[in-house]
Structure formats: C-alpha cells, structure tokens
Sequence to fold (406 residues):
Amino acid sequence: MMEVSEAVAAVLREASAFEPHAISLLDALGLVLAEDVRADADSPPFDKSLVDGFAVRLADCVASLPVIETVAAGQVPTRSLDRPAAIQIMTGAPLPVGAEAVVPVELTSEQIGASGGVHVSIPIKVASWKLDTNILRRGASTKLGDLVVAAGSELRPQELGALAECGLARVTARRRPRVAVLATGDELVPVEQAPGPGQIRNSNETMLCAQLLRACAEPVPLGIARDERAHLRERIDIGLQSDVLVLSGGVSMGEKDLVPSELAAAGVRQVFHKANVKPGKPIWFGVLDRRPNSRTLVFGLPGNPVSSLVCFELFVRPALRRMMGVSSAESVAVKARLTAPHTTKGERPTYQPARLEWQSDGPIVTAIPWVGSSDLRATVAANSMALFPVGDQTYEAGSVIEVIAW
Ligand code: AMP
Ligand code: MG
Fold:
C-alpha cells in the first residue's frame, strides 16, 4: 500500500500540462499564465501628481505665486515652471516640466492678484520639503521590458489588472480540465428526490462538482451509476471522454464494488489501488491512453463523503494543478499549533477536519470532533485538514502539526 506522498508522486507522473492557448482576459480568471509578460511601457508612463494641488519649484515657495495654468487628469501641460509660478494640477495629471513638488490644495489659499490673475499662497515650510514630494516619476513602479507576470502564475484579479495595464486583451493560458463526475451506488437518489427505505441522497456529486469549480476545472456531472456491470460500464465509457473521470463509491472490497474491474475492462491501466490514509484508504487511480498526447486520468474515490472530499484535495487537486500549469502542483501544508490536546488511535496517517486560524503569533489549529468518514457536518465546521501521523499518541496543546487549508 502506497504512502500518500508516493501516491501523489505517482499521480503527478501521469499528469502533464495542457498546451497553451489564447483566451480573453476575464475568461482567464483562475487559470495559469503560460508565458512571461513584460511591460510594454514604463508605469506610470509619465511623471504624475499624486494629489490635487499646485505644482511648484521648492525655492519659489517663499511668496504668493501666480497660477499660470490648470492641468486635469487626461490633459497635458503646455507651460513649464521656469520662473516663480504655480501650476494647478489634479491627481494623476502629467507634471509640468520643472516641477519639484505638488502642494496639496488643502494647504494653500487662492487670491486674485493686483493684475486680476489668480495667485496661490503656499506655507513657507514647503520650501524645505524633499524633492518630488507628492510626485510619482515615470517608470517608478515598472520600467519598459520589466517582467510583470511570470509564466506559471495563477491569474487572480490583480494579475489580470496588471496584464490589462500591459495592453493585453487576450493572454496565453492553459485550458480548464474537463472532469466527469460519476457517483455509483444502488442506494443513491438524486438530491431532489425523497430517499426511500435504505436510500440516501447523492451528495457527493454536488460536493465534487463544487470542488472542481473552485479548482477552476469544468465539471461534467454524469448522475448516478447503478451497481450493475452494464450500466456502470456505459457511464464509465462516457466519463472516459473527459480529461479526468472522478468516480465516487464502489472501490472497496464489497461484492457490489465493481468500479476497479469495470475500469480495467474499459482499458484503464491501474496505477495504484489503496493508499495508507484515513479517510480514503480504498482510493483507486489509473490512466487511459486514448490517442497519442490524449489521456484520461481516472480517480475512484471511496464513497463516504469525507473520504471523497479529502481524497479529492489530496490526489485530484494536484493533478488538476499540473494540467493547468501551476509551477508547484503539490498541496502546501502549513505548520500550526494545536489549541487543545488531541489523542490519536492512528492505524493510518489521518487527515482530520480542522479549523485553521491565524493569530498574531502564528497559525493555530483545532481538530473538529467527527464520527468518521460519513460525517459531512464536521467538514462544514472545518476549513482545513490536520495531519496526525500513524501511531497511538496524545498531542499536547501547543504541539506543532501540519495542516492543509481547503
Ligand atoms: P462505497 O464506497 O460505495 O462502499 O460507499 C461507502 C459509503 O458512502 C456508503 O455508506 C455509501 O452509501 C456512501 N456513499 C456512496 N456514494 C455516495 C454519494 N454519492 N453521496 C453520498 N454518500 C455516498
Ligand atoms: Mg457503493
């Protein structure tokens, strides 16, 4: 039986990044940039004022100054400061040549001068200000040719904004994986149907599709397959047309656990069955090579909802990251201090629903009590999974353990 790290490595050996393609900027939210993007201009592209006020030369600020021009954002100054004078300027407007600082309007007062022109009084202290006070010089943030967003970056709103600033209406990113979701089990009924005796609702389909949406993949829900060979096989064949097929249920040792044998019959090569993990021990993983450069990764997740949830995060999520081109596909664990003592009866390494919080002196984690792998209620109270290694052990409050955020 594989350890989790070996199983994740085996999954990542089979997953490869999709070919990049051009996509419009907003449609790329959550995808991964496939090329370095460099600045097509300095940013800001001109010296600009950071406040509404008056552009001046510092040495001139000992007397009232004539206001010789007003420049709004989007305009260009026509006058320069080559003699004692002030130019009224708005936030974001280009700075006139010669300006050394902008005095905020609230520090000034305007008067009509003897000749009828507008004058502005500036406090004497401004004469001793530092050069460039309230000015952002051209290229201060980014110079032409600087790397703005690197290949492999996840495109969050701020990356998309930075790419828009570079003038890109379309970017090169890797596409979303299409992921078929197939729940199996004779006991399952659709969410909208009242369960009869011995029946339960198919909650895994909704949960797994939601996990896929969060991972920026495209879920393709295939409904419920009965625990019956012909029906299961027909559904599997449809699912195998996607980039990934995620099944839930039917991978344990029961008579009705037909998923591994039907996957094998459909030509899917088993990579591993079972991992040393709780919940989720029966997990199954395999690959179908459909054409050269086109394969389907197949995950058979154990049907218990917490097993499905945890195994998706542990095994499916890294594969999706790799396909989408994230530079490091493995899940990242943080170290956090336990808020309360915790005792494990760990026959296997256990990923327990937990609550991770940040305090000023670092992350803390509280294990959520659960009654086992069907206990979705415990996951609702959780935002992470805490790893307790194998072994019977009591962890004191304050012990440092690894936690993976959901
Ligand atoms: P299995 O892995 O098929 O042996 O199922 C293990 C447990 O998970 C059983 O109690 C099932 O009823 C339950 N289960 C299986 N599939 C689902 C599903 N799609 N939604 C909710 N519970 C499920
Ligand atoms: Mg079943």
Summary: Residues 184-185, 249-250, 256, 303 surround magnesium ion (ligand 2) (CB under 6 Å).
